[in-house]
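Quick question about two entries, pasted in order.
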Amino acid sequence: MTSTTHANEETFAGRTLKFTIPSRDARGRLVRLDSTLDDILSAHDYPAPITHILAEALVLITLMGSLVKEDGSQVTMQAQTEAGAINLLVCDYKGGELRGYVDFDEDRLAALGANPSLFALFGKGYLAITFDLATGKGRYQGIVPLEGETLAEACETYFLQSEQVPTLIRTAIRSDGGKSFAAGMLLQNLPDGEEGRERLHARLDHPEWEHVAILGGSLKHEELLSSDLSLEAIVWRLFHEESEVLVEQGQAIGKGCRCSVEHYRDVLMKFPEADREEMRNADGIISVDCAFCSRQFPIEA
C-alpha cells in the first residue's frame, strides 16, 4: 500500500482519510467523529433515537463532503418527513466544518418506543443532498425517497440514481456514558473524468465493482469504532492484496456553526425595512435563534 502521508503518522479520529485503488477504478473515504460529534450533539438535549440518527447523518455528510475538491464548497443534507416523528434533519459540511440539527415531535417520538425504524421516524419522507461548488462551478441537488433501513442506504440510492455511481456505505454509532462516537466508510467507483477514466457502467454486478464491494462489505462494526485501530490499518486489512492503494489524509473535522451577529445582520438587511420593523422588540432589537448551536443573537436596529 502506498501512502502520501508521513510514515509514522496514523489517523484515528477527527480527520478524514482518502484512499484510491487505481486498478479497480475505485475510491474511498473513512472517518471517525468523537469530540466534534459531542460538541454538536450537546447543543440540544436529544433523546437517544435522535442522537443516533443525527450522528449517522453527520458521518455521512462528512464522507460526502470529503469527496469535493474545490475549496469553499459546501455539501448539505436535508431529510424531511411526511407524517413522521422528525420534522426536519439538516446538516452540512464545508472545509472540514461540520454542523447539524434535528427538529422533531417529542410526543410522536415517545410513542414509537426505544428503537424506531427509519420509516417510523420520517414516514414517506425524502432525502435532499445539495452540492454548492465553489470557483463558479455551480450548485446541483439530488432528491431521493427515504427508503431502506438506514440513512446510509438512502445515500447509496442517491449516488446510484442521481449520479449513476455504484456506492457502498458503512456506518457505526456508539453512545457510552454520555459520550457519542461515530464512524463510517464510503466506497465507490471513480466518477467520470477521475484519473482520466470513463465512468464504470452503473451496474452493481460489474466485476471490478463487485470485487471491491465484497471486500468493503466485510468491514465490521467493531473495526469502524475501535479506537485502537487506525483508519490506515482498516484500509490495509480490507485491500492489502491489491497491487496499489494510494492513501492520503484529508481535512481535520471540527464543529463549525458559522453563526455570528455580522452574518445575521447581513441576512436581515436583505429584508424590506417594513419586515424588519415587525421583527423588532420594544427595545429595537431583533432576536435571532440559531437552531444549530442553540444560541440567541441580539441584532440592533
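Here is the second entry:
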Amino acid sequence: MEPNPPFPGASQEELLAELATLRRMLAEVETPACAGEGEGLVILRLCSGLDLAGWEVLTHRQELRDWLALPLSANPLPFLARIQKTLRELVFLSEHDPLTRLYNRGAFDRILAAELVRATRAGQSMALVLFDLDDFKAVNDTYGHPCGDRVLETVGSLLLSEKRSYDYAARVGGEEFALILPSVGLVRAEMVIGRIVEAARSLKIACDGAEAPIGVTISAGLAITKGKLDMAPEKLYALADAALYQAKASGKDRVVAAPIADLTGPPEKTLVRADEKRFLFTGLTKG
C-alpha cells in the first residue's frame, strides 16, 4: 500500500470550491480594530496537475487577478514574468476605465490638478473639454446595453486617435468624457474639438438588433485657463460643465466655449432646474 503523499494537491474543482469558501468567510469576518495596517496572511496551496496555462484560464474566468502562483520544481521565470505582467495590468486598471481604456475619474482629477499647477508655474494656457453623448439613453433603451457599450468604446477610440500623445483622455461618467489639452489656447482648442465633434458625426456603429449601423453625435463644453492665475480644478471643471450645458441647450452636436477663466470671476450659480437639465441631456422628462 502506497503511503499518502505528504503534500496532497487540489484539483481545479476543489481549488475553486475552497476559494469560494474563503471569499465568503472573509466577507463575514470583522477586522479587529487593533489590527495594524500591514497585518495579514499569505496563503499557500499546492495544486498538483495545474500548469501556468491552466492557471491563466482560471484567473480570467474567476477574477483572480490578485492571486500569485509559482511552480515547485519547474522553471520559475515564466511565472515571474506573468506576475510582473499581472502587476502592470493591476496598475493600469487602477487608473483606467476597463471598457474604453481611457483614464478613469480618479486619475482624471489627479492629472487635472497637476496640469493646472504646471500651467500656472509656466504661465501657459491649458484647455479642459467635457464631452457628452447626445441622447445616449435612447441608444440603450432601443438597442440594449451591449450596443451602448460598443458606442462608448467607439467614442473612446475616437478620442485616443484624435488627441496628441501628451493630451489626456478620460471617461469621467456614464456617457461623459473629458480631454485635458496642455499648452493649448482657445483658437487651437476650438479647432481640435470641432474636428472631434465632426468626426463623431461620421461614425457608423454596427449593433445586434439594428437594421443598419447607428450614428451618434456629441456635444462639447470647452474651458481655457491662460495660466496667469492660480486655478482650482473645480472652477475650471464648472466652467466646462456650464459650456457643455449651453451646447446641449443650443441644439446639441456642437462645441461651446466658456469665457476664459483668468479673465472672469467665479461662475454664477445656475437657476436651471434638474428636470430641465435631464431633458437636455437625455431627451426625457421625469415621469
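Reply: Strands lie at 126-133, 168-171, 176-182, 218-225, 255-257. Confidence is low (pLDDT under 50) at residues 1-8, 267-271. Hope that helps.
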